Amino acid sequence: MESINPPQNCNLCNRLSKFRSINVTKNSDWFNKPVPSFGDNNCQLLIVGLAPGLKGANKTGRPFTGDYAGDILFPTLIKFGWASGHYKKKADDGLVLKNCRITNAVRCVPPQNKPSTHEQKQCLNFLINEIKTLKNLKTILALGQIAHKSIISSFGLKQKDFKFQHSCIHKIDNNIMLIDSYHCSRYNINTQRLSIKMFEEVFHHIKAM
Q1: To pair with 81 at 20 to 30 A between CA atoms, which of 9, 45, 144, 207?
Q2: Residue 91: how many other CB atoms lie within 10 Å
Q3: Distance in angstroms (rounded) separating the CA atoms of residues 134 and 44
Q4: In a 3-state reduction of DSSP, which class is residue 57?
Q5: What are the Cα distances from residue 125, in Å, to 103, 105, 138, 154, 158?
């Protein structure tokens, strides 16, 4: 079976590999590897983010865990029944995703949280392979424009036919719908580009679908 996660010593992207090495030197007790997906292989909902946060998933080894975006995402998932337990900002907090899976378009932490176009393309096969394994998948939630574009590319579709827009729903094929949301980052929340109410409305749409 084709891999859905990069190897721990992945060197497909020279810049990201070097950045990981720097972080290993600075923080040897952090995860500092490509971050694997988290959640249910039989899920109907796949959530795709941008990339691991330096002091979040790159530190903890679990997507969205330990950074501000996780403080928004995981309580929302619990509220809407996509997760159970208590989110405590660490990978061993016992939180369980229910009928849901979380991954990132780029699996290694990028400098300044900005992966290059080349790095997005290099990681695309892992997303393609992952989607292929999710036989019960019905809905994909894209958190941000880069995640949206990676999802569209993973299905071999034309970007011009699927414009990113918050709360917009796209029919990907006969079985899968894509819904867009602004990323639940600290920047988007602080600038009020995204509010908690707006984010929760996306999950109301998902529930309705």
Answers
A1: 144
A2: 17
A3: 8
A4: helix
A5: 13, 10, 20, 8, 17
Q: How far apart are CA 209 and CA 196, in angstroms?
A: 20
Residue 104, strand partner residues? 49
Residue 86's identity, in one-letter code, is H
The domains of the chain, with CATH numbers, are 14-208 (3.40.470.10)
Strands 139-143 and 45-49, by their bridges, are parallel
How do strand 38-39 and strand 83-84 relate by DSSP bridges? unpaired
Q: Is the pTM for the entire model greater than 0.85?
A: yes
Q: What is the CA radius of gyration of the chain?
A: 16
Tens-digit pLDDT profile for residues 11-61? 999 999 999 999 999 999 999 999 999 998 999 999 999 999 999 999 999
Name the residue with tokens 């920047």: 187
DSSP state of 175: S
Helix axes 145-154, 117-133, angle to 10 degrees: 60
**Is the backbone of residue 13 left (phi > 0), alpha (psi -120 to 50) or beta?**
beta
